Amino acid sequence: MSIWHDPVSLMSGALADALLAARLLAHSPAPLGGLCLHGGGPAADRVLAALAALLPPGTPFRRLPGHIDEQRLCGGTDIAASLAAGRLVRQRGLLEEAAGGVLVVPMAQRLRADVAGRVAQAMDGAADRAGAFVLVLLDDGAPGDERPPSVLMERIAFDLCLATVRPADLAMPLPLPWPGRGEGAVLPALDDAARGALAATADALGIASLRPQLQACAAACAHAALMGAAVVGRPDAEIAARLVLSPRATQVPPEAGAPPPEPPPAPPPDARAEEPTAGDADGESATSDIPEALVVEAARAAIPPDVLDRMAAGLGRQARGSGGGAGRRIRSARRGRPLAARPGTPGGGVRLALVDTLRAAIPWQPLRCDDPAPEGAGPIRFRRDDLRVRRFEERSMTVTVFCVDASGSTAMSRLAEAKGAAELILAQAYVKRSDVAVVAFRGEGAELLLPPTRSLTRAKRALAALPGGGGTPLASGLALARQVGDAVGARGATPLLVFLTDGSANLALDGTRGRARAQDDALFAARAIATAGHDAVVIDISARPRPEAARLADAMRARYLPLPCADARALHAAVAVAAAGPGARA
Predict the structure, then answer these.
(1) Rg (Cα) of the chain, in Å, rounded?
(2) What is the pLDDT of residues 102-151, one digit of tens each?
(3) Strand order through the sheet with 337-343
(4) Which of 201, 374, 381, 441 has the fewest CB atoms within 10 Å, measured from its CB?
(5) pTM listed for this prediction
């Protein structure tokens, strides 16, 4: 049966690829691991329904809630049953319940690192057993937002985006399920030519890890089996490269220098008869001859646009910020998202986790019952090592520091833009936990015009009284912005430095005039910001994009945004994008 003769062939590429990936997962769940669906919505539900139809009836489907604790995830002591029975009674965890089935993780981009680590351990431990489960990560974040944990992305074969699925595709009937691998069935042979073509494709795409290559080989074998082939052919290798390797590309393969050579002519019948055969009765060879260049070109054409954008911006790593503009994650003893309890002693604001303490103490009760009980002791004997304390995680406050070039004839318009952007950010301050500070540089030096504040009235009053004109002490403005960022970070908040400038300077740090010396000092101050590790964005507000501003952004490892016609809303949007995504740090 061919995949091009069912309704999948009429769908858009995104949904067709996702349904094909579901078929491959149903055939070979352990070596492929699972899939990640970005921006799915109804399309993701469609793929999950297709996966459920492809698996045997009664296959368990479990969803992993974001607030799950370690006890529910991994199993452990059933406190109520143990106290009632007077002996240790264990309960199953979610990972054990999902064995042999599917584990769905909604909002995977917000999954905690400790939970992701436990899921990865379960996948590694069950990879070669019948208890392995298929992991489905649902990434509902916006482009530039956080991505699912890399420890899980490495263990699943498919990384697919469903943002371009057409509504008409969702109305089409699902294809009939293909039969899975039967008992004792043998996968098609993967010869050295197919394995070498996939390895060459991974190398051309800049994929250093060995896991994607092994997953691509498994996908090619599964696809050949579904097509009824005895060996892996070129179409199977191309599909595996397109579905598994292309989304993981870190570089664009070079263009092919010449067309692939023509295959050699077939030998005469008498010569072919003399060769040893390993195929069917007609003497056809059971090995494949797959040109590497064709597989590389197929993978190159299938590289997703978002991967190309990340490569162009140097953002191959996972985004560090959050879509809501919040700061970095910090641990707290009193408030925030609950984390797994840890051994510790309550006190000083740290609270006792009573249930977790009971779970730690109950397994030791049969041994402790023989010890003499102190006066006033209850039925459960506790030790200091049993104590568990509660932990929380919260987002730190974000402080957006505007560093405004207030020199020259266009100073007033720049200040108006900065004022409008600051007002828009302050209007959302209580929702996004963001403060605003303003640094202006003009004349002979820089000035902290507005300390970090959430008061809109105070910001308006301070900005309205700022005059403009004079020289451009850019280095002084950069240095003062770094000092403000250091002070913000020392208080536990997350600074975001936003520079509104054209990148030109004519006043050095020591007050001497001269463009060459002033530019050198500005680049030195920019490198100091990069060394301090502050996230920053340089917004070029000159009439035309200038190379000086681009060099300044490169020196401080900041994001460069040329906005010659920016208004307050455009600046606000640019700052929101910079706060949501990574700071362009390689």
Answers:
(1) 30
(2) 999 998 888 888 889 889 988 887 655 556 889 999 988 766 567 889 89
(3) 329-332, 388-395, 337-343
(4) 374
(5) 0.60
